[in-house]
Amino acid sequence: MRPSRRSTRPGLAEDLDDTVAYARHIEGHLANLRHATSQRPQVAPLDVEELAAWAQDQGYDPDSGEARSQFAAELARTGRALLWPPGRNDPCWCRSERKYKRCCGVR
Fold first, then answer.
1. What is the pLDDT of residues 87-97, one digit of tens each?
2. What residues contact 62, with CB distance under 8 A and at least 6 apart?
């Protein structure tokens, strides 16, 4: 979620303008899902370049929500999605390279 360089995809640029706010939004959504379903949801951190290449191979517009959803499903299918929430001392799901308790897990 926290890309090392700015996205070149116009459809993703708005989401990634403030990566901290975006990660907090996703964190809240995941908490709501867990509460509503009593199950641990999965999160699939996306790499923009990997998404673009996958979308091109699959015939999707990489700027579309459908492409992001389908790519996230593919990451989950191939075991690359992460159960949420991670352990407090595990790396944060947002790829900040910080522990979850010091990143998105801060309350």
1. 999 999 988 89
2. 9, 11, 51, 52, 55, 56
CA pseudo-torsion sign 77, 81, 82, 85: negative
Token pair listed for 21: 């706010």
Number of neighbouring beta carbons within 10 Å of residue 34: 14
Place of tokens 């867990």: 34
pLDDT in tens, 10-66: 566 566 678 888 888 889 999 999 999 999 999 998 888 999 999 999 999 998 999
pTM here is: 0.72
H-state helical runs in 3-78? 10-16, 19-37, 48-58, 65-77
Q: Residue 22: which residues within 8 A CB-CB, separation 6 or more?
A: 1, 15, 16
The span from the CA of 2 to the CA of 55, in Å, is: 20
